[in-house]
Amino acid sequence: MVERTFVAIKPDGVQRSLVGEILKRFELAGLKIVGMKMQWLDKEFAEKHYTEDISKRRGEKVRNLLLDFIIEGPVLAIVFEGVNVIENVRKLVGDTEPRAAQPGTIRGDFCHVSYDYADKKEIAIKNIIHASANKEDAEYEIKLWFKDEDLHSYETVHEKHILN
Ligand code: ADP
Ligand code: MG
After folding, report:
1. pLDDT band at 161, cuts 50/70/90?
2. Residue 66: CB within 6 Å of ligand 1?
């Protein structure tokens, strides 16, 4: 049941100095950081992260806007470990559309725009953070972003106080 997931604080989150606030939320939930780095993507790498699957689900235009947005500045890439961590991280992140994201979630607390607004302005939705959607995506994204030797196994106090 202990699993790993991939998170990236997008260029808007980094440039709005939200890194500390975001990491704090995951740490306080007892999730373990097992890998972390700052990376400024090029288009080729961005295309491997936001695959054709985005075009199928959201349309080619949205994918292109997203690809331009994600290379605007460095992102903070993180791998978290925890119980049902994929689902738990998505819960802390909140709904894709900031308008719909609940207060208390990262997207609900720090952004607010709608699909409608983004579509009219022809911009990508800047919703601060990416998190793997499911087990298959998590495995693919962790492999894409991190080498095995850059992911670390160690004990935190949560092993004693949260997990036992
Ligand atoms: P999530 O990031 O919640 O997993 P998706 O994988 O469906 O959501 O979409 C990837 C990203 O594309 C979203 O986080 C958001 O930044 C952007 N996006 C999705 N839909 C739209 C849209 N209609 N207009 C603009 N940007 C969008
Ligand atoms: Mg997604």
Report:
1. confident
2. yes
Residues 6+ apart with CB under 8 A from 92: 25, 26, 29, 105, 106
2-163 architecture in CATH? 2-Layer Sandwich (3.30)
Domain boundaries, given as residue ranges, for the chain: 2-163
pLDDT score at 97: 98
Q: Is 161 a catalytic residue?
A: no
Closest listed ligand to the CA of 95: 1
Q: How many angstroms separate the alpha carbon of residue 125 from the centre of ligand 1?
A: 6
Tally of CB atoms within 10 A around 15 = 14
Atom of ligand 1 nearest to the CA of 95: 3
In tens, the pLDDT along 69-103 reads 999 999 999 999 999 999 999 999 999 999 999 99
